[in-house]
Amino acid sequence: MTFSTKANALWEYANPKKFLATTERVLPFFWASAAACLAVGLIWGFFFTPDDYRQGATVKIIYLHVPAALLAINAWFMMLLTSLIWLIRRHHVSALAARAAAPVGVVMTLIALATGAIWGQPMWGTWWAWDPRLTSFLILFLFYLGYIALWEAIENPDTAADLTSVLCLVGSVFAILSRYAVNFWNQGLHQGASVMRIEAVTGGDTQEKVSNVFFYPLLVCIVGFVLLFVALVLYRTGTEIRARRIRALLARERVGA
Amino acid sequence: MIALLLRDLKLAFRAGGGFGLGLAFFLIVTVMVPFSVGPQSALLSTIAPGVLWLGALLACLLSLDRLLALDWEDGSLDLLATAPLPLEAVVTIKALAHWITTGLPLVLAAPVLGVLLNLPVAGFSWLVVSLLVGTPALSVIGTFGAALTVGLKRGGLLLSLLVLPLYVPTLIFGAEAARRGAVGMDTGTPMLMLAGITAATVALLPFASAAVLRVNLR
C-alpha cells in the first residue's frame, strides 16, 4: 500500500506545474545546503588536514577530483533513467531533466579530467597517460558531447527527446563496452606495473586507501557536490519547462494572428 | 528483401561516387601516414595494423551520410517504411548493402595497403580476418548513426561525432587482433570479443535504428 502511494507521489511531479511549484520551494534549501557542505568540506579539506607523507599538499585536489568524477558517471546514469522514463511513460519533465543534466555532467567530466591532469603531473610526472580509467573518462566526455549536440541539432522537441533517449540507451551499452575494451587494451599494451601504481592512487579503492583524516572532509565534499548537482538539474529543468512554455505561447500567438 | 538489397547495390554501383570514394579515401589516408610519421620501415610496420584499421574505419564513416539520406530526400524511405517489410529488416538490408559496397572492398584492399606500410607477413591474414569480422559491426553501428541524423540539415559532422565514440570498442578489439597477429601473439581473445561485438550489434542494433527511423519519419 505504502509503496503504491509513494510511487504515485513521485509520478505527480511529471506534471510540469506541480514540478515547478515544488522545486521552487525546495531549491533554496538545496542551494544553501550545497553551499554549506562545499564550504565546510573544501575549507576543512584544504586547510585543516595534514599533507600526505608521500604526496604532500597535492593530495588535496582529491576533494574536487573524486566528487566530480563520481557525479560525471552518475549524471549519465540519471540521464539513462530519465530517458527510460520518457520512452516508457512519456513524461515531458523526465526528458527535459535528462537534457538539463547533460551539460552539468559534461562539466563534471571536464573537472575530473582537468583536476586529474593537474594531480597527475606531480604524481606520475605526466599530465596524461592512456590509463584505462583516464581513457574511459575521455570516451564518456565524447559521449556527452554527442548527446548534447544531438539535442541542439533537432528542432522538434519531441523528436529530439525520442532520439536522444535512444542514443542515451545505446550509448550506455557502448560506454560500458568501451570501459571493458579499454581495460583490455591497456593491459595488452603494457603489463601491470604502472596500472598497479595508478590503482593505488586514484578512485576505486578510495575507502581502503584514504585514511580517515582525508576521508571525512571528502565525504562532506561528495555530499556537497551531489546537492549542487541536484540543485543545478532541478533549476535547469525548470528553465527548460519555462522555455518550452514560451515557445508554445509564441506559436499560439502566431496562429492567432 | 533481396529486391531491396539489389536495388541498393545497383544504385551504389551506378550512381558512382559512393562506391569508389571510400576505397580512394582509404588509399589516401594510408599514403599520408608515412608522410606524417616518416618513412622508417620499422616504425611503419609497428603501426601498420592500427593505421589500416583506423583508415578503414574512417573510410566507412565517410560513406555513412549517404546511407539513408538519398532515400530520405527522394521520399523512397517513406515508401519503404509503409511497405509490408518491417523497418528493422529494411535497416538491416541497408547496413548489409553498405557493408558490401564499402566494408568488403576495404577488406580486400587492406592487404595491398599493408604492403605500402611494411606490414609483417604474419599480419596479413589476421588483418584481413579481423577486418572481415569487424567491418559488419561498423556498418550496423553506422546505420544507427545515419538513422539518428537522417532528417537533419547538417547531419554529416554530427554523424561523425555520434558514431565515432560508438566505434571505440570495435576499433580497440579489431586493431588489437591485427596487431597481435602481426607480432605473432595469440589473437584469440580480441578476435572473440570482436566477433561478439559484431554478432550483438547485428542482432540488436537494427531495432534501435528502426525505432529512431520511425521517430524521424513521424
Automatic annotation (TrEMBL), chain A:
According to its UniProt entry, the protein's GO biological process terms are: cytochrome complex assembly
User: Where in the numbering of this chain does the Cytochrome c assembly protein domain appear?
Assistant: 20-190
Show the stretches that span the lipid bilayer: 26-49, 61-88, 100-120, 132-151, 163-182, 214-235
Q: What is its main location?
A: membrane
How does this chain sit within the bilayer? Multi-pass membrane protein
Q: Which GO terms describe its cellular component?
A: plasma membrane
- Localization: Cell inner membrane; Membrane
Name the InterPro entries on file. Answer: Cyt_c_assembly, Cyt_c_biogenesis_CcmC, Cyt_c_biogenesis_CcsA/CcmC
What Pfam families does UniProt report for this protein, alphabetically? Cytochrom_C_asm
Protein keywords:
Cell inner membrane, Cell membrane, Cytochrome c-type biogenesis, Membrane, Transmembrane, Transmembrane helix, Transport
Kindly indicate whether the keyword Transmembrane belongs to this entry: yes
Q: Provide a Gene Ontology MF annotation, just one.
A: heme binding
Q: Give the family per the record.
A: Belongs to the CcmC/CycZ/HelC family.
Function noted in UniProt = Required for the export of heme to the periplasm for the biogenesis of c-type cytochromes.
- What protein name does the entry list? Heme exporter protein C
Q: Can you name the source organism? A: Sedimentitalea nanhaiensis
Q: What is the primary gene name for this protein? A: ccmC
TrEMBL record, chain B:
Do you know which InterPro entries this protein is assigned to? Cyt_c_biogenesis_CcmB (IPR003544), Cyt_c_CcmB_bac (IPR026031)
Can you supply one Gene Ontology CC term for this chain's record? plasma membrane
Question: Which cellular compartments is it found in?
Answer: Cell inner membrane
Which molecular-function annotation in GO is an example for this chain? heme transmembrane transporter activity
Coiled-coil-forming residues are: none
* Entry's Gene Ontology BP terms: cytochrome c biosynthetic process; cytochrome complex assembly
> What keywords appear on the UniProt entry?
Cell inner membrane, Cell membrane, Cytochrome c-type biogenesis, Membrane, Transmembrane, Transmembrane helix, Transport
How does the UniProt record describe the way this protein sits in the membrane? Multi-pass membrane protein
Record's superkingdom?
A: Bacteria
The main location class comes to membrane
Which sequence ranges are marked TM in the entry? 12-37, 43-64, 96-117, 123-150, 157-178, 190-213
**NCBIfam families per UniProt:** ccmB (TIGR01190)
What does the protein in this record do? Required for the export of heme to the periplasm for the biogenesis of c-type cytochromes.
Family designation: Belongs to the CcmB/CycW/HelB family.
Q: What is this protein called?
A: Heme exporter protein B
